[in-house]
Amino acid sequence: MNIEKTRKELRLRRKQLTSDDRESASLKIAKNLVSSGILSDSKNIATYLQNDGEVDPIYISKDYVFKSCKFYIPIINDQNKRTLKFGEYDQNQQFEKNKYGINEPINPSLVSIDLLDAVLFPLVGFDRNGNRIGMGGGFYDKTFEFVATKKKNKLKLIGLGFSIQETSNIPNRAWDLPLQYIVTEKEFICVEQK
């Protein structure tokens, strides 16, 4: 599989969804995630701000089930090391665009990634083995690489994607961090860990 070609095709497919279809599917994804119960004990959840036609996770943070949770959004921590830090999300805060055109909060309260209970990943593509295609920067893989080395890590890695983004047999390179769960508008997928 040519990852770059597949990424381009899947991004185009995702962008062809109408805004109404994207919103409707994002709402269904939020409902599927909530009804799964996997976040019921979560207090600190890393999410993201929708960009480039991605699933909009805002509906998850607005769900009453998560009123006692804190949500954090990614900020580029070190461009050279390709890592992220996470700042508390507040819908009233000021944002600025980073070098990729993605909004980041200005002067947010930061959380240590060790305190996160779950991470919601934006997806370009995914397969049923938990492999994913992101935007290609490797920021999430590098930031959360510690998960692969800790046997009893509690951090839940959850991908949010539209069903049209599913593809088969994405190659898993040594640095790729597989997902434990994938949520689409059609289903909640629990990936069997190998």
TrEMBL record:
The protein, known as: 5-formyltetrahydrofolate cyclo-ligase
Enzyme Commission identifier(s): 6.3.3.2
Domain of life: Bacteria
Organism: uncultured Pseudomonadales bacterium HF0010_05E14
Annotated keywords: ATP-binding, Ligase, Magnesium, Metal-binding, Nucleotide-binding
Reaction(s) this enzyme catalyzes, per UniProt: (6S)-5-formyl-5,6,7,8-tetrahydrofolate + ATP = (6R)-5,10-methenyltetrahydrofolate + ADP + phosphate
Residues reported in the UniProt entry to bind ATP: R132, I133, G134, M135, G136, G137, G138, F139, Y140
GO biological process annotation, one example: folic acid-containing compound biosynthetic process
